[in-house]
Amino acid sequence: MLCISIEEFLFWKKKQLSKGGDIQSFDFLLDCMGGVSTSELKLISINSKGNLHLKKSLEFLESVWDDHLIKSCPIQYLCGISFWRNLKLKVTNKVLIPRPETELIVDIVLNIFRNKLDKLFFAELGTGSGAISIALALAYPFSKGVATDIEQDALEIATKNFINYSKQSNLKFYCGNWWSPLESFKGKLDLAISNPPYIPRDTYEKLPKEVKYFEPKVALLGGEDGLKHIREIIQKAPLFLKENGWLILENHFDQSEKVKQLLVKYKFTSIEVVKDLSGIGRFTIGRYK
Ligand SMILES: C[S@@+](CC[C@H](N)C(=O)[O-])C[C@H]1O[C@@H](n2cnc3c(N)ncnc32)[C@H](O)[C@@H]1O
Protein backbone atom coordinates (compact mmCIF):
# COMPACT_ATOMS: atom_id res chain seq x y z
CA MET A 1 0.00 0.00 0.00
CA LEU A 2 1.20 3.49 -0.86
CA CYS A 3 0.29 6.42 1.30
CA ILE A 4 -0.14 9.90 -0.19
CA SER A 5 -1.77 13.09 0.99
CA ILE A 6 -5.34 13.60 -0.19
CA GLU A 7 -4.41 17.07 -1.43
CA GLU A 8 -1.68 15.64 -3.67
CA PHE A 9 -4.06 12.93 -4.88
CA LEU A 10 -6.82 15.40 -5.77
CA PHE A 11 -4.37 17.61 -7.64
CA TRP A 12 -3.15 14.57 -9.60
CA LYS A 13 -6.74 13.44 -10.32
CA LYS A 14 -7.67 16.86 -11.70
CA LYS A 15 -4.61 16.77 -13.97
CA GLN A 16 -5.55 13.31 -15.31
CA LEU A 17 -9.13 14.34 -16.03
CA SER A 18 -7.96 17.48 -17.82
CA LYS A 19 -6.39 15.18 -20.44
CA GLY A 20 -9.82 13.83 -21.43
CA GLY A 21 -12.07 10.90 -20.70
CA ASP A 22 -15.00 10.77 -18.32
CA ILE A 23 -15.03 10.80 -14.56
CA GLN A 24 -16.95 7.49 -14.33
CA SER A 25 -14.15 5.66 -16.18
CA PHE A 26 -11.52 7.35 -14.06
CA ASP A 27 -13.29 6.45 -10.82
CA PHE A 28 -13.67 2.90 -12.16
CA LEU A 29 -9.89 2.72 -12.63
CA LEU A 30 -9.27 4.09 -9.13
CA ASP A 31 -11.66 1.55 -7.67
CA CYS A 32 -10.47 -1.52 -9.59
CA MET A 33 -6.74 -0.89 -9.68
CA GLY A 34 -6.07 1.81 -7.12
CA GLY A 35 -8.18 0.26 -4.36
CA VAL A 36 -10.04 3.55 -3.73
CA SER A 37 -13.77 2.91 -3.65
CA THR A 38 -16.39 5.30 -5.02
CA SER A 39 -17.66 5.98 -1.49
CA GLU A 40 -14.10 6.82 -0.37
CA LEU A 41 -13.79 9.20 -3.34
CA LYS A 42 -17.01 10.93 -2.30
CA LEU A 43 -15.75 11.34 1.26
CA ILE A 44 -12.43 12.87 0.24
CA SER A 45 -14.15 15.33 -2.08
CA ILE A 46 -15.91 16.68 1.04
CA ASN A 47 -12.93 16.55 3.38
CA SER A 48 -9.50 16.78 1.75
CA LYS A 49 -7.45 16.58 4.96
CA GLY A 50 -5.30 13.58 5.77
CA ASN A 51 -3.84 10.72 3.75
CA LEU A 52 -5.04 8.11 1.30
CA HIS A 53 -3.87 4.54 0.74
CA LEU A 54 -3.39 3.33 -2.82
CA LYS A 55 -2.77 -0.20 -4.09
CA LYS A 56 -0.77 1.07 -7.10
CA SER A 57 1.49 4.06 -7.67
CA LEU A 58 0.19 7.22 -9.31
CA GLU A 59 2.64 6.58 -12.19
CA PHE A 60 1.14 3.16 -12.82
CA LEU A 61 -2.46 4.42 -12.68
CA GLU A 62 -1.53 7.29 -14.96
CA SER A 63 -0.03 4.91 -17.52
CA VAL A 64 -3.27 2.87 -17.61
CA TRP A 65 -5.32 6.07 -17.96
CA ASP A 66 -3.07 7.23 -20.82
CA ASP A 67 -3.55 3.87 -22.55
CA HIS A 68 -7.29 4.30 -22.24
CA LEU A 69 -7.17 7.83 -23.68
CA ILE A 70 -4.63 7.27 -26.43
CA LYS A 71 -5.74 3.86 -27.71
CA SER A 72 -9.46 4.20 -26.84
CA CYS A 73 -9.27 0.82 -25.10
CA PRO A 74 -12.29 0.37 -22.80
CA ILE A 75 -11.31 0.84 -19.17
CA GLN A 76 -12.99 -2.48 -18.28
CA TYR A 77 -10.55 -4.40 -20.50
CA LEU A 78 -7.57 -2.50 -19.07
CA CYS A 79 -8.71 -3.32 -15.53
CA GLY A 80 -9.91 -6.83 -16.48
CA ILE A 81 -13.17 -6.21 -14.61
CA SER A 82 -16.74 -5.24 -15.30
CA PHE A 83 -19.54 -4.52 -12.83
CA TRP A 84 -22.92 -5.85 -13.91
CA ARG A 85 -25.99 -5.95 -11.65
CA ASN A 86 -24.47 -6.96 -8.32
CA LEU A 87 -21.70 -8.98 -9.96
CA LYS A 88 -18.03 -8.18 -10.37
CA LEU A 89 -17.00 -10.09 -13.49
CA LYS A 90 -13.65 -10.86 -15.02
CA VAL A 91 -13.51 -9.65 -18.64
CA THR A 92 -10.90 -9.86 -21.38
CA ASN A 93 -11.07 -8.87 -25.03
CA LYS A 94 -12.44 -12.37 -25.73
CA VAL A 95 -15.81 -11.38 -24.26
CA LEU A 96 -18.23 -8.52 -24.75
CA ILE A 97 -18.33 -6.06 -21.85
CA PRO A 98 -21.80 -6.80 -20.47
CA ARG A 99 -24.04 -3.78 -21.04
CA PRO A 100 -26.25 -2.08 -18.44
CA GLU A 101 -29.36 -2.44 -20.66
CA THR A 102 -28.88 -6.23 -20.70
CA GLU A 103 -29.32 -6.26 -16.91
CA LEU A 104 -33.07 -6.02 -17.55
CA ILE A 105 -33.15 -9.52 -19.03
CA VAL A 106 -32.75 -10.87 -15.51
CA ASP A 107 -35.65 -8.70 -14.30
CA ILE A 108 -37.84 -10.00 -17.13
CA VAL A 109 -37.13 -13.55 -15.97
CA LEU A 110 -37.72 -12.62 -12.31
CA ASN A 111 -41.06 -11.15 -13.36
CA ILE A 112 -42.14 -14.28 -15.23
CA PHE A 113 -40.90 -16.85 -12.72
CA ARG A 114 -41.83 -15.30 -9.39
CA ASN A 115 -40.90 -18.24 -7.18
CA LYS A 116 -37.16 -18.25 -6.50
CA LEU A 117 -37.46 -21.85 -5.34
CA ASP A 118 -38.60 -22.94 -8.82
CA LYS A 119 -36.57 -25.76 -10.31
CA LEU A 120 -36.17 -24.00 -13.63
CA PHE A 121 -34.25 -25.52 -16.46
CA PHE A 122 -32.85 -22.64 -18.51
CA ALA A 123 -30.45 -22.20 -21.41
CA GLU A 124 -28.49 -19.13 -22.38
CA LEU A 125 -27.20 -18.98 -25.94
CA GLY A 126 -24.05 -16.88 -26.40
CA THR A 127 -23.09 -16.43 -22.77
CA GLY A 128 -19.88 -14.39 -23.20
CA SER A 129 -18.67 -13.45 -19.72
CA GLY A 130 -21.50 -15.57 -18.27
CA ALA A 131 -23.24 -12.52 -16.79
CA ILE A 132 -26.88 -13.49 -17.49
CA SER A 133 -26.54 -17.19 -16.65
CA ILE A 134 -24.60 -16.54 -13.46
CA ALA A 135 -27.18 -14.00 -12.28
CA LEU A 136 -29.97 -16.52 -12.97
CA ALA A 137 -28.15 -19.47 -11.39
CA LEU A 138 -27.67 -17.38 -8.24
CA ALA A 139 -31.22 -16.00 -8.23
CA TYR A 140 -32.75 -19.49 -8.61
CA PRO A 141 -30.55 -21.76 -6.51
CA PHE A 142 -32.61 -24.86 -7.38
CA SER A 143 -32.45 -24.20 -11.09
CA LYS A 144 -30.30 -25.97 -13.63
CA GLY A 145 -28.71 -23.89 -16.38
CA VAL A 146 -26.80 -24.62 -19.55
CA ALA A 147 -24.92 -21.86 -21.32
CA THR A 148 -23.34 -22.02 -24.76
CA ASP A 149 -20.88 -19.97 -26.74
CA ILE A 150 -19.04 -20.49 -30.01
CA GLU A 151 -15.83 -19.20 -28.40
CA GLN A 152 -14.00 -21.55 -26.04
CA ASP A 153 -12.00 -18.57 -24.69
CA ALA A 154 -15.23 -16.87 -23.66
CA LEU A 155 -16.44 -20.02 -21.90
CA GLU A 156 -13.23 -20.16 -19.89
CA ILE A 157 -13.89 -16.64 -18.61
CA ALA A 158 -17.56 -17.47 -17.91
CA THR A 159 -16.55 -20.60 -15.99
CA LYS A 160 -14.07 -18.62 -13.84
CA ASN A 161 -16.74 -16.02 -13.16
CA PHE A 162 -19.23 -18.66 -12.09
CA ILE A 163 -16.75 -20.46 -9.81
CA ASN A 164 -16.00 -17.10 -8.23
CA TYR A 165 -19.63 -16.80 -7.14
CA SER A 166 -20.84 -20.30 -6.54
CA LYS A 167 -19.67 -23.65 -5.29
CA GLN A 168 -22.77 -25.22 -6.84
CA SER A 169 -22.74 -27.15 -10.08
CA ASN A 170 -26.13 -25.91 -11.33
CA LEU A 171 -24.65 -24.12 -14.35
CA LYS A 172 -22.75 -25.91 -17.09
CA PHE A 173 -21.01 -24.43 -20.13
CA TYR A 174 -20.95 -25.89 -23.64
CA CYS A 175 -19.03 -24.82 -26.72
CA GLY A 176 -20.71 -24.77 -30.13
CA ASN A 177 -23.06 -23.10 -32.56
CA TRP A 178 -26.24 -21.83 -30.84
CA TRP A 179 -28.45 -24.86 -30.06
CA SER A 180 -26.15 -27.56 -31.38
CA PRO A 181 -24.36 -28.40 -28.09
CA LEU A 182 -27.79 -28.82 -26.44
CA GLU A 183 -29.15 -31.72 -28.56
CA SER A 184 -29.70 -33.88 -25.48
CA PHE A 185 -31.96 -31.25 -23.89
CA LYS A 186 -34.59 -31.16 -26.64
CA GLY A 187 -38.07 -30.45 -25.31
CA LYS A 188 -36.80 -29.93 -21.76
CA LEU A 189 -36.24 -26.18 -21.32
CA ASP A 190 -38.55 -23.92 -19.32
CA LEU A 191 -36.72 -20.89 -20.61
CA ALA A 192 -34.14 -19.87 -23.20
CA ILE A 193 -32.44 -16.50 -23.21
CA SER A 194 -30.11 -14.89 -25.69
CA ASN A 195 -28.43 -11.58 -26.28
CA PRO A 196 -27.00 -12.60 -29.65
CA PRO A 197 -24.87 -10.52 -32.02
CA TYR A 198 -27.50 -8.33 -33.72
CA ILE A 199 -25.70 -5.36 -35.25
CA PRO A 200 -26.30 -4.96 -39.01
CA ARG A 201 -23.11 -4.86 -41.10
CA ASP A 202 -23.31 -1.20 -42.13
CA THR A 203 -23.89 -0.12 -38.52
CA TYR A 204 -21.05 -2.37 -37.38
CA GLU A 205 -18.65 -0.65 -39.77
CA LYS A 206 -19.49 2.71 -38.21
CA LEU A 207 -19.22 1.68 -34.54
CA PRO A 208 -17.02 3.85 -32.31
CA LYS A 209 -13.46 2.59 -32.25
CA GLU A 210 -13.54 1.61 -28.55
CA VAL A 211 -16.16 -0.95 -29.56
CA LYS A 212 -15.10 -1.94 -33.08
CA TYR A 213 -11.37 -2.31 -32.43
CA PHE A 214 -11.56 -3.89 -29.00
CA GLU A 215 -14.73 -5.91 -28.51
CA PRO A 216 -15.04 -9.27 -30.32
CA LYS A 217 -16.61 -8.98 -33.78
CA VAL A 218 -18.22 -12.39 -33.24
CA ALA A 219 -20.14 -10.91 -30.29
CA LEU A 220 -21.51 -7.95 -32.27
CA LEU A 221 -22.05 -8.58 -35.95
CA GLY A 222 -25.43 -10.07 -36.83
CA GLY A 223 -24.93 -10.46 -40.59
CA GLU A 224 -26.17 -8.08 -43.28
CA ASP A 225 -29.46 -7.11 -41.61
CA GLY A 226 -28.46 -7.95 -38.03
CA LEU A 227 -31.05 -10.72 -37.78
CA LYS A 228 -28.99 -13.70 -38.99
CA HIS A 229 -28.47 -15.20 -35.53
CA ILE A 230 -31.86 -14.19 -34.14
CA ARG A 231 -33.50 -16.05 -37.06
CA GLU A 232 -31.50 -19.20 -36.37
CA ILE A 233 -32.22 -19.08 -32.65
CA ILE A 234 -35.98 -18.57 -33.09
CA GLN A 235 -36.29 -21.18 -35.81
CA LYS A 236 -34.84 -23.96 -33.66
CA ALA A 237 -36.21 -22.84 -30.29
CA PRO A 238 -39.46 -24.88 -30.60
CA LEU A 239 -37.39 -28.09 -30.63
CA PHE A 240 -35.80 -27.30 -27.28
CA LEU A 241 -38.52 -25.56 -25.28
CA LYS A 242 -41.08 -27.39 -23.19
CA GLU A 243 -44.72 -26.71 -23.93
CA ASN A 244 -45.29 -23.11 -22.79
CA GLY A 245 -41.55 -22.53 -22.43
CA TRP A 246 -40.33 -18.94 -22.79
CA LEU A 247 -37.88 -17.43 -25.24
CA ILE A 248 -36.37 -14.07 -24.29
CA LEU A 249 -34.25 -12.21 -26.82
CA GLU A 250 -32.37 -8.95 -26.75
CA ASN A 251 -32.37 -7.10 -30.08
CA HIS A 252 -31.17 -3.91 -31.73
CA PHE A 253 -33.23 -0.75 -31.07
CA ASP A 254 -35.19 -1.05 -34.34
CA GLN A 255 -35.60 -4.82 -34.68
CA SER A 256 -38.43 -5.67 -32.31
CA GLU A 257 -41.18 -5.60 -34.96
CA LYS A 258 -39.24 -8.01 -37.17
CA VAL A 259 -38.39 -10.25 -34.22
CA LYS A 260 -42.08 -10.28 -33.28
CA GLN A 261 -42.99 -11.39 -36.81
CA LEU A 262 -40.43 -14.19 -36.62
CA LEU A 263 -41.90 -15.39 -33.34
CA VAL A 264 -45.38 -15.37 -34.89
CA LYS A 265 -44.07 -17.33 -37.89
CA TYR A 266 -42.68 -20.03 -35.59
CA LYS A 267 -45.94 -20.29 -33.64
CA PHE A 268 -44.99 -18.49 -30.44
CA THR A 269 -47.75 -16.93 -28.35
CA SER A 270 -47.87 -14.26 -25.57
CA ILE A 271 -45.46 -12.21 -27.68
CA GLU A 272 -44.42 -8.96 -26.11
CA VAL A 273 -41.87 -6.23 -26.67
CA VAL A 274 -40.23 -5.05 -23.46
CA LYS A 275 -38.69 -1.58 -23.39
CA ASP A 276 -35.35 -0.77 -21.79
CA LEU A 277 -34.88 2.17 -19.42
CA SER A 278 -34.51 4.55 -22.38
CA GLY A 279 -37.91 3.48 -23.72
CA ILE A 280 -36.41 1.42 -26.56
CA GLY A 281 -38.06 -1.91 -27.51
CA ARG A 282 -34.93 -3.82 -26.57
CA PHE A 283 -36.34 -7.25 -25.71
CA THR A 284 -38.80 -9.47 -27.51
CA ILE A 285 -40.31 -12.36 -25.62
CA GLY A 286 -42.71 -15.16 -26.38
CA ARG A 287 -43.94 -18.59 -25.30
CA TYR A 288 -43.88 -21.67 -27.39
CA LYS A 289 -47.58 -22.64 -27.52
C1 LIG B 1 -23.75 -9.90 -27.70
S1 LIG B 1 -22.68 -11.09 -27.02
C2 LIG B 1 -23.53 -11.44 -25.51
C3 LIG B 1 -22.64 -11.89 -24.40
C4 LIG B 1 -23.35 -11.98 -23.04
N1 LIG B 1 -24.45 -12.91 -23.07
C5 LIG B 1 -23.86 -10.61 -22.62
O1 LIG B 1 -25.07 -10.39 -22.67
O2 LIG B 1 -23.04 -9.76 -22.24
C6 LIG B 1 -23.01 -12.49 -28.03
C7 LIG B 1 -22.27 -13.77 -27.66
O3 LIG B 1 -22.66 -14.78 -28.61
C8 LIG B 1 -21.53 -15.55 -28.95
N2 LIG B 1 -21.76 -16.13 -30.28
C9 LIG B 1 -21.60 -15.55 -31.49
N3 LIG B 1 -21.93 -16.41 -32.49
C10 LIG B 1 -22.31 -17.56 -31.89
C11 LIG B 1 -22.78 -18.81 -32.37
N4 LIG B 1 -22.89 -19.04 -33.69
N5 LIG B 1 -23.08 -19.76 -31.46
C12 LIG B 1 -22.96 -19.53 -30.14
N6 LIG B 1 -22.53 -18.37 -29.61
C13 LIG B 1 -22.21 -17.38 -30.47
C14 LIG B 1 -20.37 -14.58 -28.91
O4 LIG B 1 -19.14 -15.24 -28.76
C15 LIG B 1 -20.76 -13.69 -27.71
O5 LIG B 1 -20.21 -14.18 -26.53
Fold and architecture overview:
This protein has 289 residues and is α/β, with parallel strands linked by helices. Helix content is 41%, strand content 22%. The protein is built from twelve helices and eleven strands. It has helices at residues 6-18, 23-34, 38-46, 58-71, 75-79, 103-112, 131-139, 152-165, 201-205, 209-212, 228-240, 256-265; strands at residues 2-5, 51-54, 81-84, 87-90, 121-125, 144-149, 171-175, 189-194, 241-250, 268-275, 281-288. A seven-stranded mixed sheet has the order 7-6-5-8-9-11-10, with helices on both faces. Strands 1-2 form a two-stranded antiparallel ribbon. β10 (268-275) and β11 form a beta hairpin. The protein is elongated, with a radius of gyration of 21 Å. S-adenosylmethionine is lined by residues 95-96, 98, 102, 125-129, 131-132, 148-151, 154, 177-178, 195-197, 218-219.
Lay out the secondary structure:
Elements: E1 2-5, H1 6-18, H2 23-34, H3 38-46, E2 51-54, H4 58-71, H5 75-79, E3 81-84, E4 87-90, H6 103-112, E5 121-125, H7 131-139, E6 144-149, H8 152-165, E7 171-175, E8 189-194, H9 201-205, H10 209-212, H11 228-240, E9 241-250, H12 256-265, E10 268-275, E11 281-288
Helix pairs in contact: 6-7
